[in-house]
Design a protein that fits this description.
A seven-stranded mixed beta sheet has the order 3-2-1-4-5-7-6, with helices on both faces. The protein is α/β, with parallel strands linked by helices and 225 residues long. 37% of the residues lie in helices and 22% in strands.
Length: 225
Protein backbone atom coordinates (compact mmCIF):
# COMPACT_ATOMS: atom_id res chain seq x y z
CA UNK A 1 0.00 0.00 0.00
CA UNK A 2 1.28 3.48 -0.89
CA UNK A 3 -0.78 6.21 0.81
CA UNK A 4 -1.43 9.46 -0.98
CA UNK A 5 0.80 12.37 0.09
CA UNK A 6 -0.59 14.49 2.90
CA UNK A 7 -2.28 17.51 1.37
CA UNK A 8 -1.74 19.40 4.64
CA UNK A 9 2.05 19.08 4.67
CA UNK A 10 3.53 22.59 5.02
CA UNK A 11 5.08 23.37 1.60
CA UNK A 12 7.67 25.84 2.93
CA UNK A 13 8.91 23.37 5.53
CA UNK A 14 9.03 20.62 2.91
CA UNK A 15 11.07 22.78 0.55
CA UNK A 16 13.46 23.71 3.35
CA UNK A 17 14.03 20.09 4.32
CA UNK A 18 14.44 19.06 0.70
CA UNK A 19 17.10 21.72 0.25
CA UNK A 20 18.86 20.70 3.43
CA UNK A 21 18.92 16.99 2.63
CA UNK A 22 19.03 16.82 -1.16
CA UNK A 23 22.70 15.82 -0.97
CA UNK A 24 23.15 15.04 2.73
CA UNK A 25 20.69 12.16 2.55
CA UNK A 26 23.29 10.08 0.70
CA UNK A 27 25.68 10.19 3.69
CA UNK A 28 23.10 10.82 6.41
CA UNK A 29 23.17 7.44 8.14
CA UNK A 30 26.95 7.09 7.95
CA UNK A 31 27.53 10.49 9.53
CA UNK A 32 24.70 10.66 12.07
CA UNK A 33 25.59 7.44 13.85
CA UNK A 34 28.35 9.33 15.67
CA UNK A 35 26.11 11.89 17.36
CA UNK A 36 22.46 10.80 17.26
CA UNK A 37 22.95 8.80 20.42
CA UNK A 38 20.30 6.62 22.05
CA UNK A 39 18.38 5.63 18.92
CA UNK A 40 19.15 1.93 19.11
CA UNK A 41 18.24 1.83 22.78
CA UNK A 42 14.91 3.49 21.94
CA UNK A 43 14.21 0.79 19.33
CA UNK A 44 15.14 -1.98 21.76
CA UNK A 45 12.75 -0.60 24.37
CA UNK A 46 9.74 -0.17 22.07
CA UNK A 47 8.53 -3.74 22.60
CA UNK A 48 5.27 -3.38 20.64
CA UNK A 49 2.64 -6.10 21.05
CA UNK A 50 2.65 -8.90 18.47
CA UNK A 51 0.40 -7.94 15.59
CA UNK A 52 0.58 -4.28 16.59
CA UNK A 53 1.49 -1.18 14.62
CA UNK A 54 4.37 1.21 15.09
CA UNK A 55 4.98 4.60 13.50
CA UNK A 56 8.00 6.86 13.19
CA UNK A 57 7.31 10.58 12.94
CA UNK A 58 10.01 12.17 10.79
CA UNK A 59 11.30 8.84 9.50
CA UNK A 60 14.03 10.31 7.29
CA UNK A 61 16.00 7.58 5.53
CA UNK A 62 13.97 4.82 7.28
CA UNK A 63 17.05 3.67 9.17
CA UNK A 64 15.11 3.29 12.43
CA UNK A 65 12.07 1.72 10.77
CA UNK A 66 14.20 -0.94 9.11
CA UNK A 67 15.89 -1.86 12.39
CA UNK A 68 12.53 -1.95 14.18
CA UNK A 69 10.91 -4.09 11.48
CA UNK A 70 13.76 -6.57 11.67
CA UNK A 71 13.58 -6.72 15.46
CA UNK A 72 9.78 -6.94 15.71
CA UNK A 73 8.79 -9.27 12.90
CA UNK A 74 5.10 -9.52 13.84
CA UNK A 75 4.55 -5.76 13.75
CA UNK A 76 3.43 -3.52 10.87
CA UNK A 77 5.72 -0.49 10.54
CA UNK A 78 4.82 2.95 9.19
CA UNK A 79 6.57 6.26 8.84
CA UNK A 80 6.16 9.70 7.42
CA UNK A 81 8.39 12.65 6.67
CA UNK A 82 7.82 16.13 5.34
CA UNK A 83 10.71 15.86 2.85
CA UNK A 84 9.96 14.12 -0.46
CA UNK A 85 13.67 13.69 -1.24
CA UNK A 86 14.25 11.95 2.08
CA UNK A 87 11.33 9.66 1.31
CA UNK A 88 12.97 8.74 -2.01
CA UNK A 89 15.97 7.52 -0.05
CA UNK A 90 13.74 5.83 2.53
CA UNK A 91 11.85 3.84 -0.09
CA UNK A 92 15.09 2.80 -1.76
CA UNK A 93 16.55 1.65 1.56
CA UNK A 94 13.35 -0.24 2.46
CA UNK A 95 13.33 -2.01 -0.89
CA UNK A 96 17.00 -2.89 -0.58
CA UNK A 97 16.27 -4.40 2.85
CA UNK A 98 13.45 -6.51 1.35
CA UNK A 99 10.88 -4.88 3.61
CA UNK A 100 8.61 -3.08 1.17
CA UNK A 101 5.65 -5.24 2.19
CA UNK A 102 6.13 -4.54 5.90
CA UNK A 103 7.05 -0.85 5.99
CA UNK A 104 4.80 1.89 4.61
CA UNK A 105 6.09 5.46 4.32
CA UNK A 106 4.43 8.60 3.05
CA UNK A 107 4.68 12.38 3.11
CA UNK A 108 3.23 14.13 6.14
CA UNK A 109 3.50 17.11 8.45
CA UNK A 110 4.37 16.17 12.04
CA UNK A 111 2.28 19.00 13.48
CA UNK A 112 -0.84 18.26 11.41
CA UNK A 113 -1.70 14.64 10.82
CA UNK A 114 -4.07 11.92 11.91
CA UNK A 115 -3.75 8.19 11.49
CA UNK A 116 -6.78 7.32 9.37
CA UNK A 117 -6.46 9.95 6.60
CA UNK A 118 -2.69 9.69 6.38
CA UNK A 119 -2.05 5.97 6.72
CA UNK A 120 -5.43 4.26 6.69
CA UNK A 121 -5.27 2.86 10.23
CA UNK A 122 -7.08 3.73 13.45
CA UNK A 123 -3.95 4.38 15.50
CA UNK A 124 -0.62 3.01 16.66
CA UNK A 125 0.61 0.93 19.58
CA UNK A 126 4.02 2.61 19.50
CA UNK A 127 5.08 5.95 18.04
CA UNK A 128 8.72 7.03 18.00
CA UNK A 129 10.21 10.45 17.41
CA UNK A 130 13.98 10.25 17.13
CA UNK A 131 15.94 13.52 16.87
CA UNK A 132 13.14 15.15 14.88
CA UNK A 133 11.59 17.51 17.44
CA UNK A 134 14.76 19.60 17.38
CA UNK A 135 14.11 20.21 13.67
CA UNK A 136 10.36 20.83 13.79
CA UNK A 137 9.41 24.45 14.46
CA UNK A 138 5.93 23.63 15.86
CA UNK A 139 7.39 20.82 17.97
CA UNK A 140 4.84 21.13 20.77
CA UNK A 141 2.06 20.61 18.24
CA UNK A 142 3.98 17.60 16.93
CA UNK A 143 3.99 16.03 20.40
CA UNK A 144 0.26 16.58 20.78
CA UNK A 145 -0.45 15.11 17.32
CA UNK A 146 1.67 12.06 18.12
CA UNK A 147 -0.17 11.47 21.37
CA UNK A 148 -3.50 11.64 19.54
CA UNK A 149 -2.22 8.99 17.15
CA UNK A 150 -1.81 6.41 19.91
CA UNK A 151 -4.39 3.73 20.59
CA UNK A 152 -5.43 3.29 24.26
CA UNK A 153 -2.50 1.74 26.08
CA UNK A 154 -0.08 2.93 23.41
CA UNK A 155 3.30 4.53 24.04
CA UNK A 156 5.11 7.55 22.61
CA UNK A 157 8.90 7.12 22.67
CA UNK A 158 11.11 10.19 22.25
CA UNK A 159 14.86 10.70 22.08
CA UNK A 160 16.46 14.02 21.21
CA UNK A 161 19.22 16.41 22.14
CA UNK A 162 19.39 17.51 25.74
CA UNK A 163 21.10 20.59 27.12
CA UNK A 164 24.47 18.89 27.84
CA UNK A 165 24.33 20.34 31.35
CA UNK A 166 26.98 17.96 32.71
CA UNK A 167 29.35 18.41 29.79
CA UNK A 168 31.99 21.14 29.42
CA UNK A 169 30.66 24.56 28.41
CA UNK A 170 32.95 24.69 25.37
CA UNK A 171 31.50 21.40 24.15
CA UNK A 172 27.92 22.59 24.65
CA UNK A 173 28.52 25.90 22.87
CA UNK A 174 30.33 24.25 19.99
CA UNK A 175 27.70 21.57 19.55
CA UNK A 176 24.81 24.04 19.52
CA UNK A 177 26.60 26.27 16.99
CA UNK A 178 27.33 23.31 14.75
CA UNK A 179 23.78 21.94 14.99
CA UNK A 180 22.39 25.35 14.03
CA UNK A 181 24.07 24.95 10.63
CA UNK A 182 21.64 22.09 9.99
CA UNK A 183 18.54 23.89 11.34
CA UNK A 184 18.69 21.84 14.56
CA UNK A 185 17.68 23.52 17.83
CA UNK A 186 17.78 21.41 21.02
CA UNK A 187 14.54 22.08 22.95
CA UNK A 188 15.46 23.34 26.39
CA UNK A 189 11.95 22.76 27.74
CA UNK A 190 11.34 19.36 26.14
CA UNK A 191 10.91 17.54 29.44
CA UNK A 192 8.67 20.32 30.78
CA UNK A 193 6.44 20.04 27.73
CA UNK A 194 6.31 16.25 27.95
CA UNK A 195 5.27 16.52 31.60
CA UNK A 196 2.55 19.00 30.63
CA UNK A 197 1.35 16.67 27.87
CA UNK A 198 1.13 13.78 30.34
CA UNK A 199 -0.81 15.89 32.85
CA UNK A 200 -3.31 17.11 30.24
CA UNK A 201 -4.17 13.56 29.25
CA UNK A 202 -3.70 11.70 32.51
CA UNK A 203 -0.84 9.76 30.93
CA UNK A 204 2.22 8.15 32.48
CA UNK A 205 5.69 9.58 31.86
CA UNK A 206 9.16 8.14 32.35
CA UNK A 207 12.24 10.12 31.36
CA UNK A 208 15.97 10.29 31.85
CA UNK A 209 18.98 12.26 30.73
CA UNK A 210 21.54 10.21 28.83
CA UNK A 211 25.30 10.63 28.46
CA UNK A 212 25.68 13.47 30.99
CA UNK A 213 22.77 15.38 29.53
CA UNK A 214 23.78 14.98 25.90
CA UNK A 215 20.37 13.48 25.10
CA UNK A 216 16.92 13.15 26.63
CA UNK A 217 14.95 9.90 26.53
CA UNK A 218 11.25 9.77 27.44
CA UNK A 219 8.20 7.50 27.21
CA UNK A 220 4.61 8.77 27.45
CA UNK A 221 2.07 6.01 28.14
CA UNK A 222 -1.54 6.56 27.13
CA UNK A 223 -4.06 5.14 29.59
CA UNK A 224 -6.09 2.11 28.61
CA UNK A 225 -9.67 3.23 27.90
Amino acid sequence: MTPAPNAHAAPEAARHMDGLYRYQRHIYDASRKYYLLGRDRLIAELRPPPGGRLLEVGCGTARNLILAARRYREVAAYGFDISPVMLETARRNIARAGLSRRIVVTEGDAARWSAEPLLGVAGFDRILISYALSMISPWREALEAAYRGLVPGGELHVVDFGQQERLPRWFRSGLHAWLALFSVTPRADLLTELAALARRHGAGLDHERLYRGYAVRAVVRKPVA
